[in-house]
Amino acid sequence: MQDYHEFLAEILITEEQIKTRIAELGAEISRDYQGKIVHLVCILRGGVVFLTDLMRQITVPNTIDFMAVSSYGVGARQSTGQVRIGLDLQEDIRGRDVLLVEDIVDSGYTIATVMEFLGTRHPNSLKVCTLLDKFERREIDVPIDYCGFKIPDKFVFGYGLDIDELYRNLPFIGAVDPARYQPRA
Ligand code: IMP
Ligand code: MG
Question: Which of 45, 65, 158, 177 would give a disulfide with 9, using CB separation of 3.0 to 4.6 Å?
């Protein structure tokens, strides 16, 4: 396995910047959901690091649940538009204030599919919080209520985001230099 230094083009967002921004997002969400219980629905696996930090910056009562969604396999770098729900929620969301917590919105297909899927279950509200927005690549329009950072069209990794399932544990967001990255055999 390659050391990430071998293909890191640049650190796009530092650990410190992520921390500061998540504190701001937590404060904003806490203001907006005053008097409510916010039900945080994390989209696995990429959203899990963000969720655990974000929920600790939210001061209103909150609950969590998880969904697994996959749009492309190992080796692929973009969504096919064919989004598969791999794991459904444990709990019913009827009447609840659902906030989807996602690592990155790229083409938009994942969030669009999840919103359509959950929208039929009659939540009281359904909003989206994403750490990253790769806005230049959007193919389908999706509403983003809370966004950590808008980023350029680069393949990124770390802080929950993977390259071929690896490097999710890194505390920063790095951009890949595709010329120096060697996919695993
Ligand atoms: P979308 O359906 O095209 O919006 O893709 C969303 C999913 O693709 C995200 O939840 C990520 O799992 C993955 N993804 C998109 N861009 C990147 C990236 O730069 N690095 C790692 N994963 C990414
Ligand atoms: Mg994801």
Answer: 177
**109 pocket-lining for ligand 1 (C-beta < 6 Å):** yes
User: From the alpha carbon of 109, which atom of ligand 1 is closest?
Assistant: 2
| Residues 11-42: tens digit of each pLDDT | 999 999 999 999 999 999 999 999 999 999 99
- Span 108-119, mean pLDDT? 95
Closest CA to ligand 1's atom 12: 46
The backbone region for 81, taken as left when phi is positive above 0, alpha when psi lies in -120 to 50, beta otherwise, is left
Is the CB of 69 inside a 6 Å radius of any atom of ligand 1?
Answer: no
Give per-residue pLDDT as tens, 56-106.
999 999 999 999 988 765 556 666 678 889 999 999 999 999 999 999 999
Distance (angstroms) between ligand 2 centre and the Cα of 46 equals 4
With contact defined as beta carbons under 8 Å apart, do 50 and 97 qualify? no
Catalytic residues, by residue number, are 106
Ligand whose nearest atom lies closest to the CA of 66: 2
- Cβ of 118 closer than 6 Å to ligand 1, yes or no, is no
